[in-house]
Amino acid sequence: MDKDAKIYVAGHRGMVGSAIVRELRRQGYGNIVTRTHKELDLISQEAVNGFFADEKPEYVFLAAAKVGGIVANQSALADFMYDNMMLEMNVIHAAWKHGVKKLEFLGSSCIYPRMAPQPMPESCLLTSSLEATNEAYALAKISGLKYCEYLNRQYGTDYISVMPTNLYGPNDNYHPEHSHVLPALIRRFHEAKESGLDEVTCWGDGSPLREFLYVDDLANLCVFLMNNYSGNETVNAGTGKELSIRELTEMVAGIVGYHGRILWDTSRPNGTPRKLLDVSKATALGWTYSTELPEGIRLAYDDFLSNPMRAER
Length: 313
Fold this sequence. Notes:
This protein is an alpha/beta fold. 44% of the residues lie in helices and 14% in strands. The protein is built from 11 helices and 12 strands. The protein has helices spanning 15-26, 45-55, 70-75, 77-97, 135-155, 181-195, 215-228, 245-256, 280-285, 293-306, 308-312, and strands at residues 7-10, 32-33, 59-62, 102-106, 159-164, 166-168, 199-203, 209-210, 212-214, 235-237, 243-244, 261-265. The strands form 4 sheets. It has a 6-stranded parallel sheet, sandwiched between helices. Strands 6-9 form a two-stranded parallel sheet. The model has no long low-confidence stretch (mean pLDDT 93).
């Protein structure tokens, strides 16, 4: 991408989209186009086509999505599938229709099978059943990456897909019911510290293994891939490192400054025992992450503290 290329970042107010905008600006890209949901409803095909016809972006980062944790996914299955499929299809189709040079589609590691080999290679996609708790979201994301692949095959476009592991960082969602595990722990231990609680109870036994990537590192990879990768197969985005939920919990408590007891409710489910991405493809392309987990959690906690409205939602 030339530094003056016109770049559209869809979903620029979300955690991933805002990180991509920061990274583009850091690298000297100045012609960045964004629209809020109020300004452009991506679920409206007419509105999206009108936007692409008027703005004519050369490059597109598709980071917009309807997202949520397990509770949100299970309670709004139809909404998650419809909204995500409509917005991604509208943007990808309009990009093709209006001659976008390159598009990058952002997905999620939940696209891979529930019993995928560990670490999970890109090639394990669609080899067995999905995790039921986020199947609707996963099916929508698979449809998006496959549509990119099919456009490449049929029309010779240059559309690529990136599948991140668990993300965290600035602009995360700290909602008590709809957030993911790391921001949920930040909020829980912060509130326990503020309330002077002697103990905090967490679900399961803390044994599941998880991988976490700081969102600014993902943004760096996204720009890197836009400039250095073309291909039909998706690229995994992660650290290649994992730790147990118990280790993560103790790390977050220490960084937040909570010194009470941490109890484990083993009557609650643990979830999938292990989720780790195979990141050998990104490594072979010459990219690696830079933010270690303790540093990233400190940065995320600073973001939580400095954004009280975000902490309330």
